[in-house]
Amino acid sequence: MPFRSYPRRRKPAASPELFGASGEAWPQDRLIAHIDGGARGNPGPAGYGVVLQDASGRAVAELSTFLGHQTNNYAEYMGLLAALRYSIEHGARALEVISDSELLVKQINGQYKVRHPALLDLHQQAKALIAKLEWFKVHHVLRGKNKRADALANRAMDQGMGRT
Q: What is 27-159's CATH number, 3.40.640.10, 2.60.40.3500, 3.30.420.10, 3.90.110.10?
């Protein structure tokens, strides 16, 4: 799928559904990643799920991985990193990330400091990958708006625990 380059700021396009809260135009050929991570017992058996779509909503890829014994926040970050890596490896220049982890969203947006040493490394990796994109947004949604990514994370945990 071809992607084109964008300046960091663009004049708003004519269609209002392409605007973010700031009025900034969103690239029409961006990838959209719904991400989720979970850990049963926190810490406990952990996994992430990622659903990637193009801007029209067409499915592009689904990713999920069992992570062993980890925390929920670790799993959330691993889902973000998977979405970033997939996007960059497949030539994307623009990525919108949707997560039900308020902590992750606020840390990536610089609203919260990252204090936990294990998350600090993952946060730095994410920021380095984000810097490779020409356009990036991450925002929070309630859990009900992230059902498919949640299902993939749970499937990864089930498989890792030997459940079907």
A: 3.30.420.10
CA 141 to chain centre: 12
* SS3 per-residue string spanning 100-135: CCHHHHHHHCCCCCCCCHHHHHHHHHHHHHHCCCCE
Q: Give the pLDDT score at 18.
A: 44
Please state the domain extents for the chain: 27-159
pTM of the model as a whole = 0.86
Read off the pLDDT of residues 91-106 as tens digits, 9 standing for 90 and up.
999 999 999 999 999 9
- Helix, strand, coil % in the chain, rounded to nearest 5: 35, 30, 35
Matching residue, tokens 């380059």? 5
Low-confidence ranges of the chain (pLDDT < 50): 1-19
SS3 150: helix
Per-residue pLDDT tens digits for 28-47: 999 999 999 999 999 999 99
